[in-house]
Amino acid sequence: MSQQRRCNRLILVLNLSLLVIRCSGFTQCQHNTKTLSLRRPLSIHKVDDLRRKRSTTALFMSTGVQMRPHANLAVRIDEPLVPRRAKSSFLLKTMKSIVGVILSDAVKVAVLGVCLLVCVSLVFRSSLLRDRVVNTWKMLQGAALRLADRLLPKTEGVPMEFTEEDGGWGRCTLQSKRSLGKTSFVQYDFDLPKSELTLPLQMGQQVSLSCLDSSDSIAKGDFYVYLGDRSRRTGTFSILAPQRNSDDEDGDMGFDEANFIRVLREDKFVNDELALRPGPSKLEYRGQFLPVTKMIFIAYGVGIVPILQQLKAVLPEGSSSVVQVDVLWVAETRDDFDIIEDQLEAEFLKYPSKLRVQMKVDNLRFNTLADNSKIESAIPDFSPGTMAVLSGPSGVSLRSRSYLVQRGYPDDCICIL
């Protein structure tokens, strides 16, 4: 009996609690309900909407569940309501900083400068490579030329005889006269009586030529033989002369030689005969420093002609005591170097360690060697065993000798051709 009472009491307490909960829910719904003041009659559709809302409110009141207001935002279940901030990694921040620096003007200028330096370096390296290839090719050419000089038979020919019966004179024939390229010189070619004959001239020796002019007066001159690029070395020879007026020719060659060239140019024709014989030899060393180990050749204009002949004599190994040769060739124009530039280059390729050639442009008929600093620096100082050889117009050679004496060269170690 006592247990039944306890159960009844418990059921009563539960009912009372349920009633309190329902009352509290009803009260809260009343507080949340708004009163609408209608200023104008509602339409049929709005009345239906209000009825639905009231019925819904009554339903919630009966069930004790609180009605919540509808949301005005469009919400998707697969996306968050508030967008999450993208997490930027350290690498991304670093890349953005680097791109910003690269796009700056200072970096653009620096990159452009580096590119230019790289291009210059590549060009410089390519030029160095090209120079090495060219130098290697020239060394091979020089070796081939030296080998050809040793192996190929030399065409010596038969020396031409000059007898006392004819006064020591022989005869030759004018073959041609032609301008030598773009130079200011004319080349005169002569044929000997026979194709196998050669002129018996020593190193530094000239050939004397003589003929009659239009008035039957004798014209005579001494000239150095010009080797040139003739393929036939026997039975012929050539000389060079400047193509100037008479006054300039007198200064370049002397009166007799200038007069002979004038007659040769104006009065003589192809196949005309002339007289010839071996001329004077002017190469002489009067110094006291023996043996001669160094030779310095200073040539002006056509004065380079006898220098080439002497180079061919002293440069080959074992041919002389000379171990070093310097050649300074001065010409009025760059075109004048075409006289024997190729022959000089060939000799240099054969003996690059023994021969040094320098070519300068200047007018030494009016200037001196001391007036040109580049020419002055090309002439080495004197040392015992050195011989200086000057070749060219007499006036230029005399002034050059005075200059060398001032530089410390003994006068007896200077030879004028």
From TrEMBL:
UniProt cross-references to Gene3D superfamilies, sorted A to Z: Nucleotide-binding domain of ferredoxin-NADP reductase (FNR) module
Signal peptide start and end residues = 1-25
Q: Which UniProt keywords apply?
A: FAD, Flavoprotein, Membrane, Oxidoreductase, Signal, Transmembrane, Transmembrane helix
Q: Name the residues that span the membrane.
A: 98-124
Task: Spell out the molecular function terms from Gene Ontology.
Answer: FAD binding; oxidoreductase activity
Q: Which cofactor does it need?
A: FAD
Residues bound to FAD: Y224, L240
Q: Which domain of life is it from?
A: Eukaryota
InterPro entries recorded: CBR-like, FNR_nucleotide-bd
The protein's name is FAD-binding FR-type domain-containing protein
The species is Grammatophora oceanica
